[in-house]
Write a structure and sequence with these properties.
The protein is an alpha/beta fold and about 425 residues long. The chain folds into two domains: about 45-270, Uncharacterised protein PF07075, DUF1343 (Rossmann fold, 3-Layer(aba) Sandwich), CATH 3.40.50; about 270-390, Aspartate Aminotransferase, domain 1 (Alpha-Beta Complex), CATH 3.90.1150. It has twelve helices and 13 strands. It has helices at about 5, 60-65, 90-95, 145-150, 170-185, 225-235, 275-285, 310-320, 360-375, 385-390, 390-400, 405-425; strands spanning about 45, 75-80, 100-110, 125, 135, 155-160, 185-190, 200-205, 220, 245, 305, 325-335, 345-355. The strands form three sheets. Strands 1-10-7-6-2-3-5-4 form an eight-stranded mixed beta sheet, with helices on both faces. It is globular.
């Protein structure tokens, strides 16, 4: 990390925690309850697997089973650079080479097939490795077209999510499920761990009627689910007539963060460069639709925040006084090389997780918003905060100077209802 290049000037010592990677031991997934009788949905399958001492993602389980689930099928694959097996071989390459599997189309999400693009629109292309057509789901359309699906028997999804409602890969999955259901194409989800654990569920639930590409369905900011579990929930709640098969992860426990899996970390998107950033993202990412830099254009996106009009020492003092557990705030100055406030000196904070067991990302992000509103009512543009927050009641509470505990009380009952609904679709202990 080059602090000289970014122009960081840290006031105080920056605490750095190195997490040792270890292989997690876990129980085998359990089958969720069946969909209610009388539903219009078609069958759903969860592939039965045996327990293991190491974590295997859905693609590894499928590979160990000789890809039998896809034998004789014309397959389309929604994936990107995170779709790899334990050894780092891409799912696209594995399916392309698998005997009896006919991979005929690839589909790429936001940031493209290689996850390197940070642009508003991406066009169709061709995979240089397999020569297969790549249909962009972040271009002219964000859903697989009827024409593309007409060539398929089954659509496979294999992308690493990071456990946050507004991270768009789960929206891509949801849109694909809707399109596949309309065209009578089966869908297979190759599941992956939730890297920031599958226990913690935080934040307000998206207001009904405000669904979008950054809020596919009314779930909390931090949902605590895997993509396979979310697919099961979406299918039921949206009453999709979709033949859905989830190939679960093997050996992952809900309490495990990513470093416990022993799996290779691949940046899910250009500015999601570490597990630490992923843990911070649900709370800090909410702030980036305001006139605040969240570190894009630096070496530490989502680990620093700031703006030319912020006094970092003052803001750090107020946030430290709030007594948030498991987190510290170090005043910094930095100059983003691109994105918001490019080439402008910003005052702000480095956000340091000191105890991940008690740290709560969304609560931290909300407290930052509360303090920005109190300290900079004429400079911080609060209106943009609602774009990803998606909850007008919470927005108004921040605007009116409510305390964090008061704000959390406002959405707690809805959050608890979601937890109850969520429970039936969980696959792991």
């Amino acid at each position: 990390m080059s602090f000289r290049r970014l122009g960081f000037c840290i006031a105080g010592s920056l605490v750095a925690t190195l997490l040792a990677a270890s292989v997690g031991r876990g129980d085998s997934p359990r089958r969720g309850k069946d969909a209610p009788a009388g539903s219009k949905q078609t069958s759903e399958d969860v592939v039965k697997i045996l327990p293991s001492s190491s974590v295997l993602c859905g693609i590894d389980v499928l590979q160990k089973d000789g890809f039998r689930l896809l034998h004789g099928k014309r397959v389309g694959l929604i994936t990107n650079q995170t779709g790899i097996n334990q050894k780092g071989v891409s799912t696209a390459q594995l399916l392309h080479q698998a005997p009896g599997v006919h991979l005929v189309a690839l589909f790429s999400p936001e940031h493209g097939l290689e996850g390197k693009l940070d642009i508003p629109r991406i066009g169709d292309t061709q995979d240089s490795t397999t020569g297969i057509q790549v249909y962009s789901l972040y271009g002219e359309t964000r859903r697989p077209t009827a024409d593309a699906l007409s060539r398929l028997d089954v659509l496979v999804f294999d992308i690493q999510d990071i456990g946050c409602r507004f991270y768009t890969y789960i929206s891509t999955m949801g849109y694909a499920m809707e399109a596949a259901a309309k065209q009578g194409v089966a869908m297979v989800i190759l599941d992956r761990p939730n890297p920031i654990n599958g226990i913690l569920v935080e934040g307000p639930v998206l207001d009904a009627g405000r669904e979008s590409f950054v809020g596919y369905y009314p779930i909390p900011v931090r949902h605590g689910m895997t993509v396979g579990e979310l697919a099961r929930l979406f299918r039921h709640e949206l009453d999709l007539a979709l033949q859905l098969t989830v190939v679960p992860v093997r050996g992952w426990r809900r309490t495990d963060y990513f470093e416990k899996t022993g799996l290779l970390w691949v940046n899910p998107s250009p500015n999601m460069r570490s597990l630490n950033e992923a843990v911070l993202y649900p709370g800090i990412g909410l702030l980036e639709t305001t006139n605040l830099s969240v570190g894009r254009g630096t070496d530490r996106p989502f680990e620093v925040i700031g703006a030319p009009w912020i006094d970092g020492i003052r803001l750090a003092r107020h946030l430290s006084a709030a007594g948030l557990p498991g987190v510290g705030f170090v005043p910094v100055r930095f100059t983003p090389e691109s994105s918001k406030y490019a080439d402008q000196l910003c005052g702000g904070l480095s956000i340091v997780i000191t105890d991940r067991k008690v740290f709560r990302s969304v609560a931290t992000g909300l407290e930052i918003a509360i303090q920005l509103r109190r300290l900079y009512p004429d400079k911080w543009e609060i209106k943009g905060y609602d774009r990803l927050l998606g909850d007008k009641t919470t927005l108004e509470a921040v605007a009116h100077g409510k305390r964090l505990d008061e704000i959390q009380t406002l959405y707690q009952s809805e959050l608890e209802r979601f937890k109850g609904d969520r429970a039936r679709w969980l696959l792991y202990k």
